[in-house]
Structures are given as structure tokens and as C-alpha cells.
Amino acid sequence: MARAGLTPGVLAQAGAELADEVGFEQVTVTELARRFDVKVASLYSHVRSSHDLKVRIALLALEELADRAADAIAGRSGRDALAAFAEAYRGYAREHPGRYDAARLRLDPETAAASAAPRHSQLTRAILRGYHLSEPGQTHAVRLLGGVFHGYIGLEAAGGFAHTPVDPQESWDWIVDSLDALLRARADG
Fold first, then answer.
1. Of 49, 144, 61, 63, nearest to 104 (Cα)?
2. What one-character DSSP code corresponds to residue 3?
3. pLDDT tens digits, residue range 23-58?
4. CA max distance for the chain
5. Residues in contact with 155: Cβ distance below 8 Å, sequence separation at least 6, in sequence order
6. Is there a contact between 54 and 24 (Cβ–Cβ < 8 Å)?
7. Using an 8 Å Cβ cutoff, are 128 and 183 in contact?
8. pLDDT per residue as tens digits for the range 53-85
9. For residues 56 and 115, is the Cβ–Cβ distance under 8 A?
10. How confident is the model at residue 189 (pLDDT cuts 50, 70, 90)?
């Protein structure tokens, strides 16, 4: 019999919190059962496996991050929107490192299509409309921004910038300015 109060949503939320504490890769149904002081078998009526739990955490993280990014760019355009979007991702990664990692979990195509993942691309494209890029330039720009933002965030989280006296925020601002200039230069005539 399922324990009262335990649902897939409750377990995904608790798994997300656990991911932020111990790292996304360390999240398992066994560890979550310990948190709830229940037998592992009792959780299997709500999640099929540790992978299923991780997918649910990823879906939650994608939704949270899309909501944060949408709120950040609302009413903004150009560099202002670009900077707000970038900072939404960076801030989320700092506040929720395990969830941020979860949001990058590779999902099967059907699950990905039904998730908030397409919203991330739509939000990026909304910013890029202000730069007047047509295809395939817009797709290249989506990939560029994702690569730069996720790469920088990953390096910063790993302590990759701790060896230099230059403030990482100064570099971040320089990168956003450089991306803005590049996108403006690439605008369609």
C-alpha cells in the first residue's frame, strides 16, 4: 500500500531538493526512501526506477527554469533581454545546482517534446527576434547562446575561474556584451 502523502510530484520535488544537496548523479530511489524513512519498495508504486525519478526531476527543473527565464525577459528586448535571459540561467544554476544539471538530462524525443524544453528554445528565439535573424542564422544563434551560457556556467560551477584575479562577473558582462555585438552584426539587412 502506498504511503499517504507520497505522490510522483512530491517525490520529484524531494528528489530535486536532494539533487541540489548531493548532486544530480547521486539521486536514487534508495536515497530518497531514506529521506522519507520508508522502504524502497513503497516508492516504486510512484516511480518506476531511479531513472524515472531523474526524468521527473528533469521535467520539474525544465519547467522552473523556463518560468524563470520567461519572467526575466518579459517586456525586455535587445541586450537587456539577452542579459536577463543569461542571468536567469546563471542564477538558477547557482541556487539549484542539482536541478540545473537535471535540466540538461537527455530525454527521449517524446518526453522532451511534451516537456518545457521547447519553451527554452522559444524563449531564446523570442530574444533573437529583436536581432532580426532569419534561418538558419537564428538556429545557429540559439546553439551559440546555449553553448556559451551552459559552458560558462559549468566552468564557473567547477571552480574554473578561481585561479585568476579577474572577477567572473566582469567576464560574464563582457561575454554578454560581445554576444550582443555579434548578434547585431549578424542581423539580416
1. 61
2. P
3. 999 999 889 989 888 887 778 878 888 899 999 999
4. 65
5. 161
6. yes
7. yes
8. 999 999 999 999 999 999 999 999 999 999 999
9. no
10. low
Calculate helix-pair angle for 117-129, 78-95, nearest 10 degrees.
Answer: 150
In degrees rounded to 5, what are phi and psi of residue 72?
A: -65, -40
CA nearest 13: which of 92, 93, 102? 102
Q: In this structure, what C-alpha cell is assigned to residue 100?
A: 540545473
| Sequence-ordered list of residues with C-beta below 8 angstroms from that of 100, at least 6 positions apart, any chain | 61, 65, 89, 92, 93, 153
Grid cell of 123 as nine digits: 524563449
At which residue does the C-alpha cell 548578434 appear? 183
Length of the chain: 189
Identify the residue whose cell numbers are 517586456: 75
